[in-house]
Fold this sequence. Notes:
By secondary structure, this protein is of the alpha/beta class. It folds into two domains: about 5-15 and about 85-215, HAD superfamily/HAD-like (Rossmann fold, 3-Layer(aba) Sandwich); about 20-80, DNA polymerase, domain 1 (Orthogonal Bundle). It has helices at about 20-30, 40-45, 50-60, 70-80, 95-100, 115-125, 145-155, 170-180, 195-200, 210-215; strands at about 5-10, 15, 90, 105-115, 130-135, 165, 180-185, 205. A six-stranded parallel sheet has the order 5-4-1-6-7-8, with helices on both faces. Helix 1 packs across helix 4.
Amino acid sequence: MKKFDAVIFDLDGTLLYTLDDVTDSMNYMLGKHKFPLRSRDEIRSFVGEGAGQLMERAIPGGKRNPEYDKCLADYFLHYFSNMLNKTYPFEGIPETVKKLHEGGYKMAVVSNKIDNATKELTQKFFGDYIKVAIGQTRDTALKPAPDTVFQALCELEADPGKAVYVGDMEIDIETARNSGTVCVAVTWGYRDRKFLEENGAEYIIDRPQELLDIVGFNK
Length: 219
C-alpha cells in the first residue's frame, strides 16, 4: 500500500532550471529603463515569492519607483517570448516524473510563477504526465498560503494527508506545513542542504530518484 498517492511540485528550481532566462529578461528590462543590471546570483536570491517581489527587489526604490508597473510589464513581455531559451528540466526529473505517472501517482505543479507561464512550461516539458498546473493570478494568494495547493488537491481529488509537496526553498517548506502535506526539499535548486535542514524540511533529497522511495513507489 502506497504511503502517498499524490505529488505536488514547485516549478522553478525544483522541476526546471529557469534562472538564466529569468535573469536575461530582468536585465533586458533593467537595461531598457537604464537601471543597474543584476547578476545571476542576485536574481537567485530575489526569486520565490512571485514576480512582484522579484521586481521590487531588482529595481531601485522597489514599488516606490514610479516606473514599477511599466518595468513589470516589460519584464513579462520579454520573458513570455524568451522563457524557453535556456530553460530545461533538472537531470533525473523527466525519468522520475514518468515513473510516478506509470505508478499511478496523481501529480500537479503549484508555483508562485505567473499562471500562464506555469501552465505553458508544465505543458511543454511534462504535458504527457502532469495535467494540473497552477500559478500566480490576481485572485490567488501566493505561497506560503496553502490556497493553490488546496486547489490542486481538489482538482486531483487527493487528500493532503496522502500528498507530498516537493520544493527547493523555505517558502515551500512553509507551504507544505500550511497545507498539511509532507515537505520534500531538494538540494539542486535555490537553497542548500544546511539551509533546508535549519528551516525544518521533513525530507531532503539530492537526486530526483530519491523521491520514489519516499512516496513508496512499488511498495
